[in-house]
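S1.2 Input.
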Amino acid sequence: MKKILSVFLALTLMLACICMQASAEGAPAFAAGNAEVNPGDTVEIPITIENNPGIIALSVNVSFDTNVLSLQEASKSASVFPQAGITFGGTYETNSFNILWEDGTSTENYTINGTVATLTFLVKEDAPIGDTTITVSCADSSVLDVDLNEIAFNTRNGVVSVVQAEVGGWSFAEDSTLYTFEGSSGLQFVCGLDNIYPVISDYVETTGGWTYEVEPNEMDMESTGAKLVICDENGDTVEEYYAVLFGDINGDGTFDITDWSLMADAMGAIVDEAWGDYILTDEYPQSFAADCNHDLILDVTDTSMLADQLGTLADIDQSAWE
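S1.3 Output.
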């Protein structure tokens, strides 16, 4: 029987593919999976058997558009049929590929359903946007049962939808008051934080595989001194921003006497390089946070504004830079 089946499998490779596409629900069928991908992606397409009535041999042809897809790999599945009986016909360079299986020593039919093989395709970088068909077909006499009776199988094509890759990027949420400011040295800041216990990560949105991370400051807060790190789809850092809550100099998320003391010390040059050059306020997140009136100079106006904040007379303006 094994020799007969081997001849049968060889002949099926030479026959025209004339199986009709599956339409009857519950009918035996070979099918290709569907996928949505971007140009340049790789995608795995399963070739499955459904409503299997019982067989011991099959030959299925899979064809595709080589202007869109390039076959990279064909892998066997042992979950449906014995892996040792699965062979492949054709090469990765052609637009047609065959999946063959037989078990000439079996005395019983195989009735399991599932994935027969998985084909891995590369979607070409210049692939046109739209759908491309992965055609599944089988010739007459290409599926047999244990008594060598021909078993009729329908087929169902797969569709790979090539879509435009989403452009990667990031932004603050529409209802966020956050904004960015670039200092004179090129250091970038996130401003406009909530006055009490700011949480930057609640307002950052990314697209196209980009990600973000907020590294808390020494107070384990997302306030002054915390760092917002933006990464692209490859995990590479694109931008870094240091958080600034104006008036919260020590970064604990609140306004208190410690902040007022630090500001007073800075202006009196009592603290030696505690958080940078106090003349260039926008080169350090802590000194920038002390610039309550946003004029890039630390002076009595800033201490007065912080005193008003502490005395609940007036809130320090965290709004967009003017």
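S1.4 Remarks. Confidence is low (pLDDT under 50) at residues 1-23, 270-276.
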